[in-house]
Amino acid sequence: MNERKPQADASERSFFKMPHTYAIIMGILLIAVILTYTLPAGQFDREKQDGQTVVIDGTYRAVESAPVNFFGLFEAIPKGMEAGAAIIFYIFLVGGVFGIIRQTGAIESGINQLINRFGQKGHIMIPMTMFVFSVAGATIGMAEETIIFVPIGIMLARALGYDAMTGAAIVSLGAAVGFAGGMLNPFTVGVAQSIAEVPLFSGLGYRTAVYLVFLVVTILYVMNYAQKVKKNPEQSLVHDLEKHRKQETTATFSQFSKKHLFVLVVLVGGITLNVIGIFEWGWYLTELTASFLIIGLLAGIVTMGVNRTFESLIDGAKAVTFGALIVGFARAIVVILEDGRVIDTVIYGLSNAVGQLPTSLAVIGMYVVQLITNFFIPSGSGQAATTMPIMAPLADLLGIERQVAVLAFQYGDGLTNMIFPTSAHLMAFLAIAGIPYEKWLRFVWKLFAIWIVLACGALLLAVVLGIQ
């Protein structure tokens, strides 16, 4: 996607250069191979309970060692692709559909229409804009797509007496909170719940309640900063930039039309149908993918014609190649640990390490693992494929609901995208906004600390309530 190009410049200015995400995955694959030689082989018994393949506590036993050789390291990658095929193609096709929706220009024009309508009312602009972007993040996983709105957000913020930091925050943090809330996010919650064998998009009510808390707190945080800057421009963290830079938006949007309205109606109607299908008819990945294809083809063919629709489908699929293929690479880690008969040894060791702790501390430990993992694997779907095959059975052994393990992944993945320099869209929008990373860090670190506290509270409450 064109929006990701600025990251190259941003990373060149950073203090260190992180290895490519796929290089990190390959390193983890090599470590997994080494573990098959160094860890004792062992297995748990498993059985089906309420549609889940669960680990039976107390059944771990030693088995014959089966170390993976050099060729097996690379053989595991296509095996991982095969194991994750349903999720990989789901990501490709849903990404293609959103490529069609983006090409119609309906989302951009619709959001721009709202910004123009409320943009001259400063007290309304911040919560309204952040809410709209958060809904997009929570339902269709909007992340990188928000980058094109950053210059508009900055321009409007400056016109209202705020600064570039405020303009960038109302766009990026709004989408980030929705992405982390992820009630219907197909690329994070959908993938994680599929791997954990949890009913798709279950726990919707609890996720929505937590999302609203995060959203309100984030809106108040941004508004508090904005008001300080308006009262005293010298309070701006980018005051030096404001004095010397006058950034204008180069993004242009077509006028909101009946075709755009049609696309948005089809999209909202389709998402509503998916929710009904999931909870009333037992829909899963296959049915959801088919429904999304109908949404995309109907919206595209009516507004753009057949050829442009399928060209946009391919372009959209290309845009998610990074996240789709990394699922296969990540599943290869599990393949190696399974073939080497040590994955249960890892689970057994982790369960012994935290088994003596209260359940609350155990779930916080799972959350910390997800936070750390996100630094190295910023792809949400990739992180889910890497961690959930271990976290789901670990949750079984610790007496924690798998839904809570998914929540630990969800909050560990989504929130860190706004602070870790390995996040592609973070570095991209900072580059476009002209905001140095260190200044953004000064602005967001307190909010991030609040997010951490709220996430831990949400996880503890989920354990107490037994969210399933």
Automatic annotation (TrEMBL):
It is a multi-pass membrane protein. The chain crosses the membrane at residues 21-39, 83-101, 122-140, 146-162, 169-192, 204-223, 261-284, 290-307, 319-337, 357-377, 418-437, 443-467. The keyword Membrane applies. It comes from Exiguobacterium sibiricum (strain DSM 17290 / CCUG 55495 / CIP 109462 / JCM 13490 / 255-15). It is found in: Cell membrane. The keyword Membrane applies. This is C4-dicarboxylate anaerobic carrier. Coiled coil: none annotated. Pfam families: DcuC. InterPro entries: C4_dicarb_anaerob_car-like (IPR018385), DASS-Related_Transporters (IPR051679). GO terms for cellular component: plasma membrane. The lineage of its organism: Bacteria, Bacillati, Bacillota, Bacilli, Bacillales. Keywords: Cell membrane, Membrane, Transmembrane, Transmembrane helix.
